[in-house]
Structures are given as structure tokens and as C-alpha cells.
Amino acid sequence: MKLFELVQKLGLKVRCAETHLQHEVSGGYASDLLSDVLANSQTGDIWVTLQVHQNIVGVASMKDIAGIILVNGREPNSDTIEKAEAEKIPIMVTEMPTFELVGKLYNLGVTGTKK
Amino acid sequence: MTIEDIRRILEAEVVAGEYLLGQKVATVCGSDLMSDVLAFARPKAVLLTGMTNSQVVRTAEMADLAGICFVRDKRPGQETVELAESKDIPLLTTPLSMFESCGRLWKEGFVGGSEYED
Amino acid sequence: MISDNRISKVQELVYEIRVGDVMQSDVITVAPETPMSQLRGILKKERISGIPVVNGDRLAGIISIEDFIKWLADREEDCSIAEKMSKNVHTLYADEPLTHAVNMFQLLGFGRFAVIDRQDKRLLGIITKGDIVRGLLKKLEIDHVEGEDIYRHKVSRFFDNILADQVVLLFQYDVAGHDFKHAGEGASRLKTTLRRLGLAPQIVRRVAIATYEAEMNLIIYTDGGKIRVRVGPDEILVIVRDSGPGIADVEKALQPGYSTAPEWVRELGFGAGMGLCNIKKCANKMDLMSSVGKGTQLYIRISTNDGAEREAV
Q: Mean pLDDT: which of A10-19, C41-50, C251-260 is highest?
């Protein structure tokens, strides 16, 4: 499933790197701990988190994450947006909490099992 | 739905509060940030988290949660286990990731605590 | 000076002490067939305002000075006490905790209760508000040495307030800075106490969450501070004070997601810039005053009357 399809199906709002939504999403990772994401996420994962500071972009870029979805209505900081534009990492936002968003992603076929 | 259902669906192991498996679960909350849990989790929610320090149990106590399931095979220290038992909060640990755990529970019909839920 | 941990000691004792421990067991009683005309002499001689009416060893009713005055005022014929006494008597069991007695006084506004045995319903004694205060003082004197008079005065006033439905509880504790390990212990004790007082669970939950977040802020950002909780009949007020470092930009600090927390705090699951928003969400009113280098004061007000509509918190 491609990133833009998820955006459409789940009504996500894209906050940056809108021209980079054609990435294929191969799996999902949900965590609010950067060290955990660094250690355990996989290339091509969609990352679901509450963290909004600019370090999330560094982590996503290092791990080749397909995109970041911020939950519970959290908005990225302005320096986070700037950095994500530069690194071409799409950031999306939703009012849904992690559990519901992941549940809906899961129903669309995005899973969190190790490949 | 009960803690026992969570244990079964997530292939989890009981770390504390074996006697509390029958406790009712209303909703599920997945988070590693305790302030987020305090703000959004509903009473009787089960918390999925990768954090294992004793403040996770404190958070569950304050927010009247039904129990905690640690993801990615994380195991809490003795202090956390003891606090959980003294507060009657069951602890589980699952080998699954947060993402996979949320997905499976959602598929089984568990709901989130969101005010924005349809 | 009296310290607040003594007051919370009073709180504990209210649960520990039984009605039977503080009641007067040497009770003057009258038989139901005693004529009303003899009551004046008994009330006057014993200097009491109410007498249990006892048939054998069973409580039949209570006759009070008010009943006597009413009988006088109505200028009725002489009759037996049994005709004028209150028969529907609220009683307490000797093995009930004192807190039940306090609640009953509060609820019914009576001056006294007859105390009976739970099993055989025999009259064992009588208890007044004064007995409760005296009983508590007696217990407290065991671990109390100095400042007796001030202390006695404060405790009894505190207790009068409980009965008058004014200040119900004062609760204060110190929070040490950077002591993550013990974070939440104060909030936990507070939660237990509020539950015991019988406040609605959703109110207790909001107070607990707000206080816990405030405690966490003291631990993360300051060298420690004080949390003082005042539980009144309509409102719970939590006052959080520290002596530094203070918040440079209060408006910014209130924005969701704004945080100056160090990495170690974030890795523990806190410091994501949600604490003050959370407190605000739990509160009916929140006031934050801070000056850099001096310290911060946070006032959290939670109404105890609007549980239902705020359940979503």
C-alpha cells in the first residue's frame, strides 16, 4: 500500500513533504521512544507517534521510514516541519489516538510483524 | 472483555496479578508517554506500552486503568511488580510490537478511548 | 505550631477508632412508662440534653430536651415518655469506625446517637460530637508532647469544621526534586484518602491526575516543593509551590507539546510537554504564577459538584 492511499482512506492531514507520498508502506511501527524506533523499526515502516520535536525526523531519515503520523491531534513544531521538508519525510496528523489509528492501518493490511 | 482476553489475543505472559485476569477491560490505549495516558486513557482501559518503570504503574493507579501489557517482551523490575501487586494492577508482557498488539486487539473488537471515535 | 501531618493523623484515626472506644458507656436511661412530668428533674440533675429510653436492655427510643419543651408548650396532660419520645432512632454499632459516626452527624444533624451492640441490639452507650473530639484528642496525646493547648484548639476546631461541613481535609506533603523513584507516592496517598472520604470516583481521578502531574513537574524541573490540598464542601484546591528556577515564558509552557525537559525525562515517559495541559484539563480553574529565579505557584481548583458532565476527562 502506498502512503497516499493511507492518507486518503484514513483522512490524514499532510503537514509536509506532500510530493513524497508515493512511497510503498511495508509495515508499521508505533512508539514514542526515539531509542526504541532506532533499534527496532524497519525500512519502509509507517511510524505512529506522539513526539513532535525535530529529532523524530533525524530518526526517520536514519531508518528509512516511509512517513510519520502524529496522533491525538498533535502538530509538528516549525523546525520539525522545516527539517522534514529538507529530508523529504512526509508528516501526517490525525485526531485519532494510537490504538485506533493502528487498528485502522491494520485493517488496511499494514502489520507490525517482523519481516 | 477481560485481561484474560488480552492475554490470549496477544499471546502474553502474566507478570503480576494472576488473580486479576478476570478484571473487565473497557478500552485500549497504546502509548509510551504517561502524560498522554493520563490525558486520554479512560477508566478501565488497558495500557499497551514499552515503558516498564514504576511510574507506569503509578499512572495506571491515578487513571483507574484495568491493567498494563508491556510490548516487545519488555519485563519490569521487581519494584514495578511489587507496586502493581500492592495496587491490584495486573501486568502482562507480550512478544509482539506495539503496532501488532494494537492491530490484533482492534481486529478482535476492542475500542480506543478517543472522544473522536465514530 | 501544629503541622499538617498531625491533621492527616486525625484522618487516619477516624478510620482506626471504633465508636465503642469513645462513647460514654455510663449512660443515664429512663423507662418508657416514666411520666413526662418527671423528665425536667432528670434532665436538670444530670445536665444532659437527651436520654435513651430503655425497655429491659433494649433501646425503645430517645427523649430529648426539645421533646420536653414541645410537651410543655403544648400544655398537654401528663403522659408517659413512651408517647412523646422519638421512636425512629438512628443508632450506631459499637464496632463501626468513627468515620461512620462523623458522616451520620453530618448527614442527620443530630446532637447524639445511641450506640448498640451489632448482635444482640443491646444499648451500650451514647455518643456525641464532643465524645468524638475528646476520643481523638486522647489518642493523639499518646504521640504528642508540646504545644498542647494550641493543638487541642486546632484539632477540635478542625473537627467542628468537619461536622459543620466546612473544611473537610487539609493534606500537605513535600516533594523532593529529581527523585523520580518516589514520584507519585503523595498523589497516591491523597487518592486513597479522597476515596475514603466518599468523593465521586471521577472527581477523585481528576484530583489524582492533576496532583500527580504537578508532583512530576516538581521532580523534573525543580529542587523540590510543597503540595497542599484543601478539600472543602464544594471545591478541592491544590496549591503547588516551589522556590525555583521559575518558568521564563508561562504562555509557551502552557502550549501542548512545548517542553524543556531533558532527554532522561523523556526516556522515562514524561516531559513531552503535556503536564500543564493535563492539569488544566482536569481542573475547573488553573492559575499559574511564576518568576524566574524565585519560583512557581500553581493553583488547581476542582469543583466537587460537577462530576457527571466532566466524566470524559
A: A10-19
Q: Which subunits have 3 or more CB–CB pairs within 8 Å of chain C?
A: A, B
Mutate to test the interface with C, among B27, B32, B33, B38 (most CBs of C within 10 A): B38
Asked if B58 and C278 come within 8 Å (Cβ–Cβ), the reply is no
pLDDT at A111 over 80: yes
Domains and CATH numbers, chain B: 3-107 (3.40.1390.20)
Task: Decide: A60 and A66 in contact? Cβ < 8 Å.
Answer: no
Chain B to chain C Cβ contacts (< 8 Å): 67
Nearest by CB to residue B62, choosing from C201, C212, C268, is: C212
CB B69 within 8 A of CB B93: yes
Beta carbons within 10 angstroms of residue C133's beta carbon: 21
Nearest CB neighbour to A74, from listed C257, C259, C267: C257
ipTM for the predicted complex comes to 0.95
**Residue C302 grid coordinates:** 476542582
Mean pLDDT, residues C4-16: 61
Strand C235-242: give its sheet, edge to edge.
C169-176, C224-231, C235-242, C295-303, C285-291
**Contact residues, chain A, for C256 at CB < 8 Å:** 74
**The CATH number of A3-107 is which of 3.10.20.310, 3.40.50.720, 3.40.1390.20, 3.40.50.300?**
3.40.1390.20
Cβ burial of C80 (10 Å; 0-12, 13-18, 19+) is middle
Gap between the Cα atoms of C204 and C37, Å rounded = 53
- Contact residues, chain A, for B104 at CB < 8 Å: 106
Q: Phi and psi (nearest 5°) for C205?
A: -65, -45
**Is the pTM value of this prediction over 0.95?**
no
